[in-house]
Amino acid sequence: MRQRSIIAITAALAAGSLTLTACGSRDDGNSGSGGGDKTKVVIGVDAPLTGDLSALGLGIRNSAQLAVDTANKDELVEGVEFELEALDDQAQPSVGQQNAQKFISNKDVLGVVGPLNSSVSQQMQKPLNDASLTQVSPANTGTELTQGDGWKTGDSVRQFKTFFRTATTDEIQGAFAAEYLYSKAGIKKVYLISDQKTYGAGLAASFKTNFTKLGGKIVGEDNVNPDDRDFNAVVAKVDKTGAEALYYGGEYPAAAPLSQQLKDSGSDIPLMGGDGIYSGEYPKLNKKAEGDLATSVGKPVEELPSAKEFIDNYKAEGFEDPYEAYGGLTYDATWSIIEAVKLAVEGNDGKVPDDGRKAVLDAMSKVKFDGVTGTISFDEFGDTTNTTMTAYKITKNAWASEYSGAPKLS
Question: CA torsion sign, 83 to 86 to 87 to 91?
Fold first, then answer.
C-alpha cells in the first residue's frame, strides 16, 4: 500500500540508511536535463480531502497522483520531474480561494487540477486567471463557469482564459437527464428540489427547462439546505403531488437521506440526480436506494477499452480509496497539463521556459490526445469537446449503467 511505503521511507531516513537526491528546481538554475538534474514542475490539486465529499475528493487526488507518477516513470517530458501538491478545500469556496493563492505563490506550480465544486471554482478562477495559471477541472459542470450567465439566452462569452474542464456542462447534463426520464423511463411528472448551491441550482434549472420543453410537468418545487438531513416536511409535499419521480440538484450527502425518507413515507418513486450523487457512498448512506437514478459525464470507465490501463495501474498502486466518479476525468485533466508542459518545453529548446505559466497556457489550445475517457480536447470556451453522458440506476445496492449518449439540444 502507498501508506506503508511512505512509513517505510520515513523510517529509513530516520535511521540514516536511505539518502534521497533532490531534483533540480528553477531556484537552482538547473533547467533541462544537463548533468542529470531535472527541472521540478508542480501540478496543484484542489479538492475536498476531508468532510462529507471526501470520497470524491480523494479519488481526484489519487488519480492525479497516478498521472504524475506515470509521466515521471515514462520520462514523458525530458528533463522534467513532475510533483503533485494536493490541498484540501473542504468543499468551502473561501478555502478554495486561499488554496488558489498558495498555488500562485509557488512559482514551480504550472497548472492546477480541480476543484470538485463549481461554487469553489467561482472563487478560484479570477486569481488563477490573473496569475496566468492554467486550471483544469475534472468535475465542475456549472455552465456559467466557462460561458457566463449569457449562455441561457444564447450569448455565451468565455469568462477566464485559464479555465478548462474535462467534464461537460450542466446544460448538457440537465438536458440528458430530462430526455432520459421523459423518453426512456416514461416519466412525465417530476417534483424538483435544489440545494441552492451553484452546481445544484444550475443543474435543476437546466433539467426543468428541458423537461418542460419535452412536454413533462414539474408538479412542485422546493429548495433545501445542503447541510439538512431531516427532509420529512418536503417529503410530505412530494407525496401529495402525484409525482412519478423526484429530481434533486445537489450532492449525495443530502440526496441519500432525502431518498430514504421519501421511501420511508411510503412513496415508491425514484430520486434522480446528477454526477453529484453518483458516488459509491450514496447506497451506503441510503438503505432504500434501489431504483434511484443518476447521470454522470462520459461513459463508465469500466466499459471503456481506453480506461483499462488506468484501472489496472490504479489497482496496482494500492490506493486506499477508489477512484470514484471523477477518476478517469481527473487523470485526463492532469495529463492535459502534462501535455501542455511537454509542448512548452519542446518549443523552448528542451527547457522549461522562464515564463512557464504563460507557455503552458498558450499550449493548452493545442492539446489533443487519446485519454482514459476518450479523445481530450477543448473548445473556444475551454469546455471539453466530449459531451457523452451516462444514466445509472442503483441495482443490487450499486450503480449500474443504463444508457449512454448525447442529448439533443435545441
Answer: positive
